[in-house]
Amino acid sequence: TLFTLSYRTVKSQQAEVMRILESKSIQYELIDISVGGEVRDEMRSKAGNPTAVPPQIFNEDQYCGNYEMFSDAVEEDKVEQFLKMA
């Protein structure tokens, strides 16, 4: 089903983000938005996109971007800038 594919894609992207952050010794907190609509709505509100899907990446309350933007930053070796750490 489409939902399963979408869920697998999210999990795969999430695992990739976590792997890269861990390889750079960057601490992170994973927030599960499947626990309820309120958490999902908060993510979408902070991202400024009412249809945003995970993973969305934040530095505290500051929105950094989505998976594609993170992936581009990895390719350009600009993860720290993307995460607003530099």
TrEMBL record:
Belongs to the SH3BGR family. Pfam families: SH3BGR. It comes from the Eukaryota. This is SH3 domain-binding glutamic acid-rich-like protein 3. PROSITE patterns: GLUTAREDOXIN_2. Could act as a modulator of glutaredoxin biological activity. May play a role in cytoskeleton organization. It is found in: Cell projection, Ruffle membrane; Cytoplasm, Cytosol; Nucleus. Gene3D superfamilies: Glutaredoxin. Keywords: Acetylation, Cell membrane, Cell projection, Cytoplasm, Glycoprotein, Membrane, Nucleus. GO terms for cellular component: cytosol; nucleus; ruffle membrane. InterPro entries: Glut_rich_SH3-bd, SH3BGR, Thioredoxin-like_sf.
